[in-house]
Amino acid sequence: MDRAKNSTGCLTLLSQLLLAIDGNESSEAVSQMVAAYGPQEFGELWGLANSHHVIMRALPRLRDVMVAGSSGKADWVGRAIAKERARIHNALSLLSPICEALKDVGDVIVIKSLDHWPDLGNDLDLYWNAESPDIVAIMRERFKAKMAERSWGDRLANKWNFVVPGLPELVEVHVGRLGQTGEQVAITNSLVARSDAAQFDSHTFRVPAAEDRLMISTLQRMYRHFYLRLCDIVDTARLVQSGARLCPSPLPGSIGRALGRARHLSGAGLRICSVVSR
Question: What is the pTM of this model?
Answer without folding.
Answer: 0.82
